[in-house]
Design brief:
By secondary structure, the protein is an alpha/beta fold. It has one domain: Maf protein. It is built from six helices and five strands. It has a five-stranded mixed beta sheet, with helices on both faces. Helix 2 links the parallel strand 1 and strand 2. The chain starts with a helix and ends in a 6-residue tail after the last helix.
């Protein structure tokens, strides 16, 4: 994971950009992976760990309507988390993660392992994806960190789905 985080850092540095994270189910795991890389302060601005719905609303401006209609584990919520993270930081690139790592908390339409991601830039599109990850709590969280970091690389590489 450290190699992937270092690749994210190199890409951010090459573009002269800073990253902000907005995390729920990963509990700061994305930020931890990033800060394992020496020199990450040159490209990592800050991280928000917003585990509760209230913290998502207070710190990131996620609307009560979005949470009520779609839930915290939704593409709508993570897209708002990206917008809030960018608005409440000096970063130009954001990644957000919210999911159900288990072993409890799943429902029929959002089973354990459901994780939503969003990536965006201050002047650009925000893209979101929903994944169903397998494994225990630790494995779901680790996979989520990897997907979050890979998405930042894809965003910076200008892949068509991010354009």
């Amino acid at each position: 994971m450290e190699i992937l985080a270092a690749q994210v850092g190199a890409a951010l540095k090459a573009h002269g950009l800073l990253l902000v994270t907005a995390e729920s189910c990963t509990g700061g795991g994305v930020a931890q992976a990033i800060t394992e890389v020496s020199g990450s302060s040159a490209w990592f601005e800050r991280g928000f760990v917003t585990y509760s719905n209230l913290s998502k609303q207070q710190m990131l401006g996620v609307s009560a309507a979005t949470l009520g209609q779609h839930g915290a584990v939704s593409e709508a919520a993570v897209r708002e988390m990206v917008g809030g993270a960018l608005a409440h930081s000096t970063a130009q690139v954001a990644v957000a993660v919210s999911g159900i790592a288990g072993p409890d908390g799943g429902t029929a339409d959002k089973p354990v392992g459901t994780v939503c991601f969003a990536w965006g830039m201050t002047r650009g599109a925000c893209i979101s994806r929903r994944h169903h990850l397998s494994g225990d709590r630790k494995q779901v969280r680790e996979q989520a960190v990897i997907i979050a970091l890979q998405g930042v690389l894809e965003l910076l590489a200008g892949r068509s789905e991010f354009a």
